[in-house]
Each structure stands twice: as structure tokens, then as C-alpha cells.
Amino acid sequence: MNPSLSAAATHRLSRNPARISRLYAWAVFALTFGLMLSDYLSRQVIGAVIPFLKLEWGLLDSQLGMLVSVVALVVGVLTVPISLIADRCGRVKSITVMAFVWCLATVACGLAQSYGQLLWARAFVGLGEAAYGAAGAALLAHVFPARQRAAVMGAFLSAGLFGSVLGVVLGGAVAAQSGWRTAFFVVGAPGLLLALIYPFVVRDYKTVALTPEGEGSTAPERLRFARIAREVFAARSSNFAYLASGLQMAMPAMLIAWLPTYFVRFHGMDMKKAALMTGVAVLVSGLGMIFGGGLADRLSAGHPRRRALVPALYSVLTAVFLIAAFALPTGPLGLGLIFLGALFAAAQGGCSVALACDVTHPGVRATVTATMTLANNLLGLAPGPIIVGVLSDSFGLKFALTLTPVLALAAAVFFVLASSTYQRDSTRHFIGGAQRA
């Protein structure tokens, strides 16, 4: 385990980033963002090569679906355990190892000679990616001041959306030109270069030991699981943020999964145009995530409660625009409202991660971010498309898409609840550290 700082010392460092140069901070961001792109390129390229795999190997659709799902399954199961390892052993070393694993596994996908080999390679892609977002976010939370944190987190997380679009578009173009194996090579190889550079540029912060509360002691305490769990869930505002973010993430998941079908059925588009329009909607969501975090930082400066109230507003706007878009007769107005809804659908992403980092101990930030990732997957990304499908079977797709955005209104309620205790929670470690110093 790395040498530890006291909570008070690390809090002063995180609140006073003057010793970290702006050039270094943005260099860290550029490399971490680049690896996030590589992460999602490796994850989503499979969608572009599925037709080629079916043609060459004669696979069943269920087998092809498992090639997609196995990554999400491994990520969901291992996010928290690997994030705990990253918090204990160091973020930079963990990120470097993870990047090598998912990039080499992606290259191995292109070398697979059977379905079983390809399935195992895809599982290792998930193993490498399991905690990257959490560890990367923890590093960014350290090198950027709190006033910029939501904007930086939003920009970082948006790489997942941009990487998803690039994975499908680039993978499809390469597979059509040079074969599906080459698509895996082209997507996986560039990340290896970033993984090589990363540890030579990025400096880790010391793993922060937790100190016993209420004992007036500055002696560090090892990061034990029970203590970490208490810290991760100690702040009410972060607990409400986990729920809010999870529910809100059902919105981009719903749009990505069902917009192509909706455009074909109700707007009369062919599949190529429907896929392109969906890609535009995903890009709009990525832009919303970037600028949504920056706007939240500006609006909450000097007004702590707005740290959670601004994402609550994003959730309300998402619900209003999407409900109206799908309730209206199909036409240009409804189409425009879909894109407006997409703009706000993921805008809270950086805000939620920043809020959770603000109110929890610096020593468990990777685990906190992993917990947010887990909530996003379990509450939104996984069930969102399924809810639409179930409702569609009974009432039709248009009605399902009109009703499901109600989940965004529920997310807004939880964000408002988070705002009520955010200010108190965000000063908890500072006050304790000051008293112990």
C-alpha cells in the first residue's frame, strides 16, 4: 500500500490545487479522456462486426448477443472490487494495467479462431474496463479544483458516448473494407500507445488513509472494507445522488436502444438513416454532458445547494422534452424535441460524480465513482431499454417512449433531496480534519 496522508492534509491539498499546474492537469485529462475513448471503442466495436461474424461462423443471434452482454456483465460484477484495489494500490498503476488488458484483449478478439475464444477475449475486455472510469475519475478529481470538477467529470464521461459512436462507425467502415479481424486490430492497438505513455506523464496521489472519527487522533487507519463501505455511504446527499443518477441514465440508454426502431416505424426512415440520426442524438447527449457539467459549476459557485439543484433541472427538462416529443404526432417538431431531450438526458453525469466526490473521503474516490457506475448500470442503463420493451409489447412503442421519461422526474426528486444535505456533507471531512490538525 502506498504511504498515506491524513484526511485533513489531503483535504487541504484537494481544496488548494495551486501546487498542481494547469498544463499538467490538462495533460492528465487528455490522456485519461483518450483512454476512455479507447475503452468504449473496444466495447462497442462488436456491434459493427456482428453481421460479419454471423456470415462467417453461422452464429445464432443469442450467441451474438452474448458477445455484447458479456462485457457489461463482467464490468458490473467487478467494478467495485477492482476499484477497491485501485484505491489501495494506486490509480496510475491500476489504470495502466487495465488499459493493457482491454487493448490486448481487443487485439485478441481479432485473432480468435472460434466463438469460444472470441467470447473469452470479450470477457477480458470487460475485465480491463471494469474500474477504469472510477479510477480515472478519482485522478481527475484530485488534479482539478472543486469549482471545475463537474465540468471535468462531464467531459470525461462524455468520452464514453463519443467512443460508442466511433466504435460502431469506425469498426463498420474498417470491417467492410478490410474484414472484421482488422477492425479489432485498428480499434485495440492505439490504446496500447496511450497505456505506455500514461505512467510516465501522470503522477498518482498518495492513497489516503482513513482516520478514526471522534478520537482526536491523526494516526492513519488502513482502508478496510467495512470502513470503506461506511465512508462510501456516509453522506445522505451522495446516496440520493446514486439513486438520481441511476434513474436518469435510463434516458440515454432508452434513446440509444429504441430510437432507430422508432425512426423506422414512425418517421419512415430506412435503417441507414435511422442509425445516422440516432448517432447524432448520441453525440448531442455527449455535448450535453460536457456543457452540463460546466454550467453546473458556474451556477453553483457561491450557492452550494445548486450543486444538486442544477442536475435536478436537467432531469425535469429531459422529461418535459421527451414526453412532449413522443406524445406529439410525428413531424419536425417532435424530432426537434427528441434532440432537445437528448441534450439534457446525460447532462447530469459529471454533476453526480462531482457531488459524490465532494462529500466523501478522498481516500475512497475511486470506489465512490465505481458505486455511481454500479447504480447507473443497475438502475438505468440495464433496465431502461427493457422497461420500454415490456411497455411496448402491451401498449405500443410510442406510448412506451412517452411514459418512460417519468423516471427522469423521479431522478429530479432525488436530486432535490440531495441538495438539502449537500452543504453539510461537503464540509464533514474538512471540519473533522481541522479539529484534528
TrEMBL record:
Main localization of the protein described in the UniProt heading: membrane
Protein name: MFS transporter
The species this protein was found in: Variovorax robiniae
One Pfam family of this chain: MFS_1
UniProt keyword terms in alphabetical order: Membrane, Transmembrane, Transmembrane helix, Transport
Ranges of residues in domain Major facilitator superfamily (MFS) profile: 27-423
PROSITE patterns: MFS
Its membrane topology: Multi-pass membrane protein
Subcellular location: Membrane
Transmembrane segments: 23-42, 62-85, 97-115, 121-144, 151-176, 182-201, 240-263, 275-296, 308-328, 334-356, 368-391, 397-418
SUPFAM superfamilies: MFS general substrate transporter
